[in-house]
From TrEMBL:
It comes from Stappia sediminis. It comes from the Bacteria. This is EAL domain-containing protein. Residues 24-273 form the EAL domain. The chain holds residues 502 to 783 of 783 of the full protein.
Length: 282
């Protein structure tokens, strides 16, 4: 009982909280309907080489085409789904859809975000493995992006799942690196193949010596640990120049491409922005 926890803590009874709860329920109902009516779709954001010349991968990012509200970003609905069975259903839909789309881009690595509750679901690893088999999708071309929140609790259980995925050949990336509490210790405990330097460090690096120093140190850290590294959120040429200079392996940001529809990514890959161009040129 909220009341038992003492005065000032009876927040559950505030009228606006009540409203929020109602909104949540409504939203959950709408999300269930959205799954049935196919209102979710994926955008893909290119991931390019450090020199910016080739697309080597893409990150799948979910969107909701709401009948009344138009295109909605994940921040507005995924937190409500997280921790409910909805997140499992949505996550499974994302994984299947991304892998199916990525069959058309045989040279790209496809990055798929996985939420904390998704990875803790007992069927998570079997589901990934079944999907890869069913679609004939090479495990090495799938990269699962997880955040620190996913490994924070139930650490041992999550670790063994990540090890299983690793054994399948799936790659694991630690997303939003640097924003959490103890990211460095997670690098030691888990076998991540890659970390992604959070956008907040990249955003101001041309104006802030501290951000630039942190980004450079993180790129060196990846190198020292033998890990791959992607810098996220590059929007300006100066940021790219710096990242190229320090030898950051992979880059992602509006500067190279906003999240786009599958067809558009396919066209860009075909137009020679993919690895095939270099291969063809020798
Ligand atoms: P994330 O995984 O860190 O994805 C990168 C986010 O940064 C995306 O936002 C992307 O649009 C945005 N971004 C990329 N480059 C730039 C840039 O240059 N400037 C700016 N301002 N933003 C940039 P989005 O698509 O809104 O997704 C937000 C977060 O929602 C993702 O962060 C991820 O944590 C989560 N998410 C998205 N799709 C999925 C999904 O299918 N499943 C799960 N579990 N989470 C997802
Ligand atoms: Mg991500
Ligand atoms: Mg990120
Ligand atoms: Mg993020």
């Amino acid at each position: 009982q909220a009341k038992d926890r003492g005065r000032g803590r009876c927040v559950l009874f505030e009228p606006h909280m009540d409203e929020t709860l109602k909104e949540r329920r409504l939203m959950e109902k709408e999300m269930r309907r959205a799954l049935e009516r196919n209102e979710f779709f994926l955008r893909y954001q290119p991931i390019v080489t450090g020199d910016g010349s080739r697309i080597v991968g893409a990150e799948a990012l979910i969107r909701w085409r709401h009948p009344k509200r138009g295109e909605i970003l994940p921040a507005a609905f995924l937190p409500i789904a997280e921790g409910t069975d909805l997140m499992w259903s949505i996550g499974a839909w994302v994984l299947r859809s991304a892998l199916k789309d990525a069959l058309s881009w045989p040279e790209l690595t496809i990055a798929v975000n996985v939420s904390p509750s998704q990875i803790r679901h007992p069927d998570f690893v079997p589901n990934v493995s079944r999907l890869l088999e069913e679609l004939g999708f090479p495990a090495s071309r799938l990269e699962l992006e997880i955040t620190e929140a996913a490994v924070m609790d139930h650490t041992d259980a999550v670790k063994s799942k990540l090890d299983e995925l690793h054994d399948l050949g799936v790659r694991i990336a630690l997303d939003d690196f640097g924003t959490g509490y103890s990211s460095l210790s997670y690098l030691r405990q888990f076998q991540f193949d890659k970390f992604k330097i959070d956008r907040s460090f990249v955003m101001n690096l041309e104006h802030e010596a501290e951000s630039a120093a942190i980004v450079e140190a993180l790129v060196n850290l990846a190198d020292a640990l033998g890990m791959a590294v992607t810098a996220e959120g590059i929007e300006a040429r100066e940021q790219h120049d710096f990242l190229k200079e320090i030898g950051c392996e992979f880059l992602q940001g509006f500067y190279f491409g906003k999240p786009m529809l599958a067809g558009e990514l396919g066209q860009r890959v075909l137009a020679g922005e993919g690895p095939s161009r270099l291969i063809a040129k020798g």
